[in-house]
Write a structure and sequence with these properties.
Elements (H helix, E strand, L loop, with lengths): L5 H16 L3 H7 L21 E9 L2 E11 L2 E2 H6 L8 H10 L5 H14 L6 H6 L7 H12 L11 H29 L16 H9 L7 H14 L7 H11 L4 H12 L7 H15 L6 H12 L23 H16 L3 H21 L11 H10 L7 H23 L17
Antiparallel strand pairs: 1-2, 2-3
This protein binds acetyl coenzyme *A and oxaloacetate ion (OAA).
């Protein structure tokens, strides 16, 4: 019997799918449906209320909305001031996690106890690393983490209980364990796929999340205070971004169906890894590598402009027509997190002899918005986003590229948790928007 070639069958059917799944632009205008649930100015369709954070990208002047520099607020506090107020040598991730989860800043005693709770929670079930993480390792650490998250449910006798206190416990344990799932997943992959030595360092209960990440990652467990502080700030910048970003909205949608914490967070992970969302930090690095290889003179604005135009026209790089690290669904003039990253990049690049790379980044930052505006219809402005520089910072911290999106997840699990709790406490209604049917009835 001939074996059926499923790939050939799928290829043959592609044309039919495209024909029957294409909906003309004019129908969207006719029914007033906004693609991506946003109008051309980036204003999202309102789908909920939240007390967790606020994003500012326009200022209202009378009836007019004027694009302005972006602002990000966590539970009433501007993210820039939360970072600026950190004392020398102080780590901010944990106290910001307390703030986002519980809605108030912790006092000294509350923070001390919260840190003990996280330290106590930092531990995987017996043999979990051997039996789950080291089995079928993958270069895609986001997938490997998601598999681990779903498997952790099998070790939790209360996995399916959606009482708020049980969900708080599960979220705290996931927040504490995410760095281990990511780093051990990387070591397993690096050993089995790259033939490197494998080592599994346990976290130190006295250390912060950023310090433990570096300690577990490096063979000799060492890092400098500056490296850990830069990573801590990077985590703070990625922790939360409103209810509408793709992965947080996913968390809220899935939570509203009454599903368990492990499944909700696994769904959020699957969203975050997308290259238009958290996966962009890896894509930026691959794109920069491609630009370095294909642009001869990094100081020639015309040559860079021409190459970026080719990327936009799907003739270069991954042929998706996107310049990664540029543009944002909501921000207009600037993403406040990119501004913070840029300050670090400028300082680190000097220490690490990466000034020439920095110049290339600066060139792309200058020229890419022009090229995008020439090739696409941009109404609200286009500027670099949080992940334009994040990968460059991680590279200078000698963190392997496979861990860039997982680092985003290590931070954003806090925002997802806060939104899961807000959905559970305050909403109690399944999220179920409507699709206008344009189907024709047939005999
Ligand atoms: C943490 C984060 O998730 S930050 C975002 C990370 N993602 C990236 O860096 C990927 C590159 N950027 C993008 O793909 C987009 O800017 C997004 C997905 C972030 C936002 O997309 P949109 O909400 O559609 O942005 P906006 O409405 O301003 O875009 C207008 C047009 O410009 C295009 N555009 C925006 N940014 C870019 C870009 N960087 N490269 C190419 N085209 C772009 C959009 O695709 C859209 O075109 P269309 O009208 O033909 O669909
Ligand atoms: O808000 C968005 O759409 C994407 C983003 O920047 C984030 O999730 O941090």
């Amino acid at each position: 019997m001939n074996k059926i070639n499923v790939s050939a069958y799928a290829l043959a059917k592609e044309k039919l799918c495209v024909e029957n799944d294409t909906i003309s632009d004019s129908l969207f205008s006719e029914y007033g449906v906004n693609r991506g649930l946003r109008d051309v100015n980036g204003k999202g369709v309102l789908t909920g209320l939240t007390n967790i954070s606020k994003i500012v990208s326009f200022r209202e002047e009378g009836a007019k909305s004027i694009p302005c520099d972006g602002e990000l607020w966590y539970r009433g506090y501007n993210i820039q001031s939360l970072i600026r107020d950190l004392e020398e040598g102080e780590f901010g991730f944990e106290k910001t996690a307390y703030l986002l989860l519980f809605g108030e800043k912790p006092n000294e005693k509350e923070l001390e106890y919260f840190n003990e709770v996280l330290a106590e929670s930092r531990g995987l079930p017996t043999n979990f690393t051997r039996d789950v993480i080291m089995k079928a390792p993958s270069k895609d650490i986001m997938n490997s983490m998601t598999r681990s998250i779903l498997t952790l449910a099998s070790y939790d006798p209360q996995a399916m209980v959606t009482e708020v206190s049980n969900c708080i416990r599960q979220c705290l344990q996931l927040i504490a364990n995410f760095p281990m799932l990511a780093v051990y997943g990387y070591h397993a992959y690096n050993h089995y796929d790259n033939d490197e030595s494998m080592y599994i360092h346990r976290p130190d209960p006295k250390l912060s999340t950023a310090e433990n990440f570096l300690r577990m990652l490096r063979p000799n467990k060492t890092y400098t205070q500056v490296e850990a502080s830069v990573l801590d700030v990077a985590l703070m910048l990625h922790m939360e971004h409103g209810g509408g970003n793709n992965s947080t909205f996913t968390t809220r949608v899935v939570t509203s169906a009454g599903t368990d914490t492990y499944s909700a967070i696994a769904a959020a992970m699957s969203s975050l890894k997308g290259p238009k969302h958290g996966g962009a930090n890896i894509k930026v690095m691959e794109m920069m590598e491609d630009i370095r290889a294909n642009v001869k003179d990094w100081e020639d604005e015309d040559e860079i402009h021409a190459y970026l135009s080719k990327i936009m026209d799907k003739q270069a790089f991954d042929q998706k027509g996107l310049i990664y690290g540029m543009g944002h669904a909501v921000y207009s003039v600037s993403d406040p997190r990119e501004r913070v990253f840029r300050r670090f990049v400028e300082r680190l690049a000097v220490h690490k002899n990466k000034e020439r790379d920095l110049e290339l980044y600066n060139m792309i930052e200058k020229i890419a918005p022009q090229v995008i505006a020439e090739k696409r219809q941009i109404f609200k402005g286009v500027s670099p986003n949080v992940d334009f520089y994040s990968g460059f910072v991680y590279e200078m911290l000698e963190i392997p590229m496979e861990l860039y999106t997982p680092l985003f997840a290590i931070a954003r699990i806090v925002g997802w948790s806060a939104h899961r709790l807000e959905e559970l406490v305050g909403m109690n209604k399944i999220i179920r928007p409507a699709y206008k049917s344009v189907m024709e009835e047939k005999e």
